[in-house]
């Protein structure tokens, strides 16, 4: 079952109001995130690495707004020690944020995504499946192309957000990195992995379905037959 961003992030989010004559922030419905790839940004004003990374992330975000404004967004989850620090920091960001007052939600999100340090950028597909546990490194290595890659590949993910993420393994077909969901390995080619979408396109050699950790089903061999029949 797909994750609704409203269930994950609350009914409404904050956005900096660019109209200087009115309130500093405006509330926006979380429904604005539906049908978008969403990056959850765990960060804080007091964090030095965050202060270095946030401008880089903002540059990438602004650079894709003209082409991906309706397909990608970022939500800031603050680890600041007080609301004044949150407000000062958030005003440097062009994206949305969970209200600072919702500390319980911020804590639960950190637990859900196993955040052990900041800055951390967790990237979610439209259906709530995790596209990347390390969006920070993706941005550092690929810049704006990381965002384009997330948006390009999200439609290839399984329907369930609970499918396994193969950290450190990429698809040799479509370059999904990491592979999420079912993973196929070629027993003939050297270190050759495919995601479920690329497996369906066919391959010259026999493919082995890799067992997901904690799964109850063992390894199966795909030979071009319907395993559900």
How are the elements arranged and paired?
Layout: H1 5-9, E1 12-16, E2 25-29, E3 37-43, H2 48-63, H3 65-68, E4 72-78, H4 83-90, E5 96-97, H5 103-112, E6 120-124, E7 130-132, H6 135-142, H7 144-153, E8 165-166, E9 179-180, E10 183-186, E11 193-195, H8 196-199, E12 207-209, E13 220-222
Parallel strand pairs: 3-4, 4-5
Antiparallel strand pairs: 1-2, 1-5, 3-6, 6-7, 8-9, 10-11, 10-12, 12-13
Helix pairs in contact: 6-7
Helix content: 25-40%
Order of helices and strands: HEEEHHEHEHEEHHEEEEHEE
In total, the number of domains comes to 2
Number of strands: 13
What features would you describe in this structure?
- It is a single chain.
- This protein has 229 residues and is an alpha+beta fold.
- It is built from 8 helices and 13 strands.
- A 7-stranded mixed beta sheet has the order 2-1-5-4-3-6-7, sandwiched between helices. A 4-stranded antiparallel beta sheet has the order 11-10-12-13. It has a two-stranded antiparallel sheet with strand order 8-9.
- Helix 6 packs across helix 7 (144-153).
